[in-house]
Design brief:
419 residues, 3-stranded antiparallel sheet, 47% helix, globular, binds protoporphyrin IX containing FE, monooxygenase, Cytochrome p450 79a2, Cyt_P450, iron
Length: 419
């Protein structure tokens, strides 16, 4: 069935492009931003942020005293994971981790926390129900207050990002820059079929915001849930760590080049996406032609929402669907497990012409996040708690309480990135 995104929802968010503009943006993003060569050229930026994640957690463990083998701390893993995701994409777009002065221990400053929190506020509203999606004339009343909240959050995001973009465009105009270093340069230099600049400054700003939004939530949510489930089932956690030790060893940190061989780790991340989707439904689509699916007639113009829960927890497809069980993804003896699911037995990157454009980057970020946490530290339930509380939040599908766990370094001290 052919579908497009629902335009009304995106008018509210005012970031995601639509119609002809979408085609142009899709071409620019595919050719200039997520191409294999571009991702390869920015590998160092991503690795630096994976190191930074390990450094941030290691410093927390060490701050309580003790040598490498005895140091430990209860770590706010949600904060570390969300900041890792924000750092990776910020580093890839703007070639910087910090908007403000930064911190020596690798952790976020006030500015980075505010930036990432504002992105999450926008994302929460992107998926939520509003009446004016179905009764458009109600939009000006902003009955649910969503528009006001999203505008405020987008202003915070743009206030951090836009001055950097203006400054960079100016540098190119004045000839102060001659080489493309990051994704912002790639957007500025992108050409159309006539060899002219493809994007206006406003379009570049919208694209930078969209890339931040597209990247920051999925890896951190899937890995937060996967880690929580694995800490409650230590035999699964141990198996993943054993795989990393066998593939990578304990004398170097895991790298993106190791990902093809980390099938069990990828199966754990896949299980995170299946069992704990980021939202109950996919982004709203509209059918662009009459269609019949499974005997149901769907007229052109219908809103189409796929239930992520319905798919990922469907007992007709998945045995014991509520159990976190990575083995289910290894049953067919597949030599290379991936995070995509083109048959839509659950939704990770979705599929089709409006499917995710960032599969390679999203996979690299998710697997590196999980693998570095598992390789770098032993993880246990915090003292005085029986197990990790796996309740979902009341108004979204994140964990109700941010994941905190007791971390302890498990590698030789010299492998932890220094301050
Ligand atoms: C694990 C990480 C990620 C997951 C699970 C994910 C998942 C998705 C999903 C489910 C959609 C909607 C597809 C639909 O409605 O059919 C989507 C759209 C999109 N994703 Fe991702 N994504 C991830 C990371 C990224 C990254 C790193 C980028 C950066 C380039 C990205 C760029 C996009 C874009 C631009 C769209 C909109 C496509 C369009 O407008 O046609 N995603 N993603």
């Amino acid at each position: 069935m052919a579908t497009e995104y629902s335009s009304r929802r995106f008018l509210t968010i005012a970031v995601v492009p639509w119609g002809d503009q979408w085609k142009k943006m899709r071409r620019v993003v595919t050719c200039e931003i997520v191409s294999a060569s571009k991702l390869h050229s920015l590998l160092e930026n991503r690795t630096e942020e994976a190191d930074n994640l390990v450094r941030f957690i290691y410093n927390q463990c060490k701050s309580n005293g003790g040598d490498n083998s005895t140091a430990s701390a209860v770590v706010n893993l949600r904060l570390a994971m969300r900041q890792y995701s924000g750092n990776v994409i910020r580093k890839m777009i703007f070639n910087r981790r910090y908007f403000g002065e930064g911190r020596k221990d690798g952790g976020p400053g006030y500015e980075e926390e505010e930036h990432v929190e504002s992105l999450f506020t926008v994302l929460k509203h992107l998926y939520s129900f509003i009446l004016s999606d179905y009764i458009p004339w109600l939009r000006s009343f902003d009955l649910e207050g969503h528009e006001k909240t999203v505008r405020k959050a987008m202003k915070i995001v743009n206030d951090y990002q836009d001055p950097l973009i203006d400054e960079r465009v100016q540098e190119w105009r004045e000839g102060k820059r001659t080489e493309s270093e990051d994704l912002l340069d790639a957007f500025i230099l992108a050409k159309d079929s006539n060899g002219k600049r493809a994007l206006s400054i406003e379009e570049i700003k919208a694209q930078c915001a969209e890339l931040m939004l597209a990247t920051v939530d999925n890896p951190s949510n899937a890995v937060e849930w996967a880690m929580a489930e694995m800490i409650n089932q230590p035999e699964i956690l141990l198996k993943a760590v054993e795989e990393i030790d066998a593939v990578v060893g304990k004398e170097r940190l895991v790298q993106e080049a190791d990902i093809p061989k980390l099938n069990y780790v990828k199966a754990c991340a896949r299980e995170g996406f299946r069992l704990h989707p980021i939202a109950p439904f996919n982004l709203p689509h509209v059918s662009t032609a009459d269609a019949t699916v499974a005997g149901y007639f769907i007229p052109k113009g219908s809103h189409v929402l796929l239930s992520r829960y319905g798919l990922g927890r469907n007992p007709k497809v998945w045995d014991d669907p509520l159990k976190f069980n990575p083995e289910r993804h290894l049953k067919d003896g597949s030599m290379c497990v991936g995070l995509t699911e083109t048959d839509l037995r659950f939704i990770s990157f979705s599929t089709g012409r409006r499917g995710c454009m960032g599969v390679a980057l999203g996979t690299a970020m998710t697997v590196m996040l999980l693998a570095r946490l598992l390789q770098g530290f032993n993880w246990r339930v915090p003292p005085n708690e029986a197990n990790i509380d796996l309740s979902e939040a009341k108004d979204d599908l994140f964990m109700a309480k941010p994941l905190h766990a007791l971390g302890q370094p498990r590698l030789p001290a010299h492998l932890y990135p220094a301050n």
